[in-house]
Design goal:
mainly alpha, about 30% helix, elongated
């Protein structure tokens, strides 16, 4: 009986996944690196906390 759950589709019918690495905004800009984002966010936070 446990096999029954495996027969259902993982996505609702009619819903299509975007192809990998596609940008829905159509922008050609490279993705932001997480490390760069954190670096800028931390610097902005420090600037905002200065009197």
């Amino acid at each position: 009986m446990e096999k029954e759950a495996d027969l259902r589709p993982s996505q609702p019918v009619g819903e299509r996944k975007l192809p990998p690495f596609s940008d829905s905004r159509g922008s050609a800009a490279p993705p932001v690196k997480i490390k760069d984002f954190l670096l800028h966010a931390r610097a902005a936070l420090q600037r905002s906390q200065q009197p």
